[in-house]
Structures
1.
Amino acid sequence: MILKGLKEKSNKNYIDKCVKNRVVDSNTNKINTVGVIVDQSEFKDLNWLQSLSTTLNVNPTNLKIIALVNPKQKEVNIYDVTYTKKDLGWKGTVKTDILKTFTNTDFDLLISFYKTSKLPLVFLSAITKAKFKVGVLAEEQVNDLILDIDINNTTIFETELVKYLNILNKL
């Protein structure tokens, strides 16, 4: 139990370090690659996430979705690429190749699509390489743009995201 707390503390410190050292690129390049981080216990509309590429004018093969799952819950996994909190190591390390691939992909846009502040979700959002980060969780400083919207209201999220990306000349 004590080791689990120390591990969480080391990862929180790493998140703070990533946020502090992140250089925000203020370019107006168009979005070609999109990464999405979701919590399976909060959001289960995979079809909407896949159709998001059409809304953003992105090739569907350039949309990568990863979901945090809880292995203790007996629910059907609807996402292809998943991870658990056990896939995170100490001091900002990741244990699986899936997470290494996702975090090392240089996304043009990263969407952190979760409302609950869970360490594995915030951790992945912080360490993933992305030029521009959008989220719906208002209390974290990981994102460049925060849309404080209910994640189940996908129509408003889509409208607001497109509106702000157009203002920033990213679409």
Note: Residues 11 and 92 are 5 Å apart (CA to CA).
2.
Amino acid sequence: MSQRGAGESNVRILRKYTNRRLYDTSRSCYVTLEDVKQLVLSGENFQVQDSKTGNDLTRNILLQIISEQEADGHGTLLTNQVLQQLIRFYGDSMQGMMSQYLEQSIAAFLEHQDRIREQMQSMMGAANPLTMMGRIADQNMAVWNMFAPRAADGGSEQEQEESQASSEVEEKTEDDDAATKASR
């Protein structure tokens, strides 16, 4: 994660002391790894520096956060097989290319992430509880309207239109239910 460039003056500096504590120089307070994780999630630029040498320790802290995330049991991104394959690339002539490939692959995934989410939501829309409750309410109204009293001449034109609309709702609901069952 490179923090250098035109916006370097906007980089938040965290100093790591020998007692392993992190100090946020912009807020003048100590921070935890969870705070650093929040900086990452919010997209804020930062750099972790060794308090004595000034060496950049950002990668070490990020790897520590990843390690803790992997150990938390919320599912893993880096399986044993993936980690073993990554280790095999260290020292290999393809190491630089692998690094670029991973960066570009993640960037492409992030670009398409919103589109993927929309597709997933549209596929799961049929299973959405609010959609299902709306369908049930429409079906109940259709049944209720079937038992509504009618005038002796077959009901008013408005009642006939409502009855026809209820029938169409029932047909659409049955078609949607069939499509939902077919997609499972």
Note: The two ends are 41 Å apart (CA to CA).
3.
Amino acid sequence: MDDSEDPAADAVEAAADRRSRRLFTALVPPVAVRAAVVAALPGDLGVRWTRAEQMHVTLAFHGAVRDVGSLVERISTAAAGHPPIRLRIGGAGSFDHHGGSVVWLGADGATAADRAELRALAEGCGASRRFTPHLTLARVRRSQAASALTVAAAVEPVEIAVHEVSIVESLLGAGEGGRALYTVVARPGLSGCAGTEGPPRRE
């Protein structure tokens, strides 16, 4: 009897299928762009900057998802309804978070048309109405916010063309130094763009 006829194996597979996965949908800048941002962040401020492999622009956070296939299908449909978007990364900002501050780079459309497409894409992916496109640089104490903002404001702006979105699984505490570990589950392409093929890639 092979595994396909083994009730115990079927039960294990069914349990795995029911396991929820913590997912979000994001735009992930090219490796070279993320590396350039990291290179511009000084190490002498006592700030724990976001690592290059974790940098992304969140479109929608989905929380615990059991039916991953249905989510991928929905996001793929939403992505297919939008053309490639020009994204401008640059300009500093922050917001309060759990008694501290999140310092970020703006990551909005390069033109009014791009900004409209970005917001429509985010909405289609499930973004909240408070959607503010940004790339997180650090979570800091409020006493560190001013100096971190100064650093962020000095990062050279860059424009990139976005051709796909990334559906990402986040495993809290599983990455280096207790950070989250990101694994790309799927990369649906925007209209006219084929999504990246191949096995999931750890980010």
Note: The longest helix spans residues 112-125.
4.
Amino acid sequence: MTTDLWPSLVDRLRERARSRPVALEISGDLASAVAAVVACDALGPDNVTGLALGDEVAPEVRDLALRTGLDFRFEPVQPILDAFLAALTLDAPVVANLQARVHRVVLLALAEQEGRAVLDPLSDVPAGVLPELARWRNAQGDVDLIPVSAM
């Protein structure tokens, strides 16, 4: 299954991007690492911008950026989130949702500014398949592009 799935994900991302560079959030988790490597395989690392959004950059994120060669940037979003929290009284579950939404807005805004598409190459891939995909892709090259710590 994996031998067919990876090329399918790469082809689908390439078609959806329509030769445009892409931007995606990389957080250090397995899903974002696999998505970044799929994008690099589909478009080449020069056409992929990985954005770390948050308070700090996880070591796994820096490792992924170095291994793949994608364009990597850190954008702190806490000041934006703090502005919302100062203006509104929100319950804890709403705050968690707000943080995810702020990340998405920042990603979309930066991508639009640079003419990049925002695509999720794993939107229909079950989470349980991701470790198998990561191991398969790492076995295809000399270097493990997906850090083992993300698996």
Note: The radius of gyration is 16 Å.
